[in-house]
């Protein structure tokens, strides 16, 4: 199976969006639907979703929307400055607000009490904080949030890559979500099967999200 670096994946994304004309929000919607497909909806009814403000977080918000539409109990938390969020994150954030789906913001240590309460009453945690572009150490409130997630006994599903894992090397960037399952999108990320990646990714499933072959070939040749 083809393994890609973060730069290669970014190049493939850009080719899909800019050269072919597939809107990023379409790819995000496809990703969300594939993630929901991999959840046992007969077994799980209560979810805690923790999203960042990039495209990985946008995936998580879209997943939350679909689970809510299916009448599942969903608590959605956002960590990070939404004013600096990606365009497609912003679209899904606005949709949730228009649907009157509550969004909880993790802005300080006190907010982790509400996160802990949600986790204690839920069955599954969905991790969509950081995506493949992460290269810095995870510190501060992000570190505390991931620690809260990892201390639970809940099943953890990570979107694309466990938050805190270097997508290229499999190195843990100070701390990392320890997932039971990772749904990685379109192509296998190198870091999932290198070094500590195997330990933190759990079961790895690759799901396609509608990227055409020409975009993948062009992106892989770029780097």
Strand line-up of the largest beta sheet: 4-3-2-5-6-7-9
The end-to-end span amounts to 18 Å
CATH topology: Rossmann fold
* Element-by-element helix/strand order: EHHEHEHEHEHEEEHEH
- By secondary-structure content and strand pairing, the structural class works out as alpha/beta
Please tally the helical runs, counting DSSP H or I stretches of 4 or more residues. Answer: 8
Q: What's the average pLDDT?
A: 96
CATH architecture designation: 3-Layer(aba) Sandwich
Estimated share of beta-strand residues: 15-25%
Task: Set down the secondary structure blueprint.
Elements: E1 3-4, H1 6-20, H2 24-37, E2 46-51, H3 55-69, E3 73-79, H4 87-98, E4 103-106, H5 111-121, E5 124-128, H6 140-150, E6 155-159, E7 181-185, E8 188-189, H7 197-201, E9 203-207, H8 213-222
Parallel strand pairs: 1-8, 2-3, 2-5, 3-4, 5-6, 6-7, 7-9
Helix pairs in contact: 1-8, 2-3, 3-4, 5-6
Q: In a few lines, what is going on in this structure?
A:
With 223 residues, this protein is an alpha/beta fold.
Structural commentary:
Helices cover 42% and strands 18% of the residues. The chain is α/β, with parallel strands linked by helices. The protein has a single domain (41-208), classed as YjeF N-terminal domain (Rossmann fold). The strands form 2 sheets. The protein has a 7-stranded parallel β-sheet, with helices on both faces. Strands 1-8 form a two-stranded parallel ribbon. Helix 1 (6-20) packs across helix 8, helix 3 runs parallel beside helix 4 (87-98) and helix 5 packs parallel to helix 6 (140-150). The protein is globular and about 45 Å long. The mean pLDDT is 96.
């Amino acid at each position: 199976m083809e393994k890609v670096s973060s730069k290669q994946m970014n190049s493939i994304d850009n080719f899909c969006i800019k050269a072919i004309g597939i809107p990023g929000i379409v790819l995000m919607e496809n990703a969300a639907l594939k993630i929901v497909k991999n959840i046992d909806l007969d077994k799980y009814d209560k979810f805690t979703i923790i999203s960042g403000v990039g495209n990985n977080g946008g995936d998580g918000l879209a997943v939350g929307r679909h689970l809510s539409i299916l009448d599942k109990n969903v608590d959605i938390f956002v960590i990070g400055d939404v004013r600096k969020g990606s365009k497609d994150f912003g679209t899904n954030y606005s949709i949730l607000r228009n649907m009157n789906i509550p969004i909880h913001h993790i802005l300080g240590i006190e907010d982790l009490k509400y996160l802990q309460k949600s986790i204690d009453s839920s069955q599954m945690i969905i991790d969509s904080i950081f995506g493949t572009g992460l290269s810095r150490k995870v510190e501060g409130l992000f570190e505390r949030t991931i620690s809260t997630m990892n201390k639970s006994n809940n099943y953890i599903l990570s979107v694309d890559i466990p938050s805190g894992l270097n997508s290229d090397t499999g190195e843990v960037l100070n701390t990392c979500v320890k997932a039971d399952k990772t749904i990685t999108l379109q192509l296998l990320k190198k870091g999932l099967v290198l070094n500590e990646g195997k330990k933190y990714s759990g079961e790895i499933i690759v799901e396609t999200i509608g990227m055409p072959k020409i975009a993948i070939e062009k992106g892989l040749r770029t780097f």
